[in-house]
Specification:
alpha+beta, single chain, 4-stranded mixed beta sheet, globular
Length: 145
């Protein structure tokens, strides 16, 4: 699930499509029209998230994660060709939205911080867990079952 830097907002475990900008349709088209590519990237993002989750200060830079995944897919798969044949969108932009959805659906709380403009900021965001922050700890405790 996602919160803001002040730990005041709460997004997740699913996205409210009614609140999303129109450009999110690019991502929903990708998930619907290319389920095999979506599953491939979903697994890669989950592995990336799981890899940083256990760190003392969990931190995931979306741009770096997306770049690493696309680079790996370039060597192992024909992901780029298939994506570009089906969609006019930028893969990094669409995958940034997918990563946002993955983090939103995660059982842990992640602070979402866009690092560029608020429009298509998803591939330039960071996700982290400030475990030593009082506001963050209060949010986590308030949602503990």
């Amino acid at each position: 699930m996602i919160t803001d830097i002040e730990c005041r907002s709460e997004i997740g475990p699913s996205l409210d499509r009614a609140k999303l900008k129109p450009y999110w349709q690019e991502y929903f088209d990708f998930s619907r029209e290319a389920p095999e590519l979506h599953a491939l990237t979903q697994a890669a993002f989950q592995a990336a998230l799981d890899g940083v989750r256990t760190q003392a200060r969990p931190f995931l830079d979306a741009q770096q994660a997306i770049s690493e995944i696309l680079t790996r897919f370039g060597a192992q798969h024909n992901f780029h060709r298939q994506f570009n044949e089906r969609f006019d969108s930028k893969p990094s932009q669409v995958l940034g939205m997918q990563l946002y959805e993955v983090v939103t659906g995660d059982s842990d709380w992640w602070v979402y911080l866009p690092t560029q403009h608020s429009g298509h900021a998803f591939p330039h965001a960071t996700y982290f867990m400030p475990r030593d922050d009082v506001r963050y700890e209060c949010l986590v405790r308030s949602h503990a079952i």
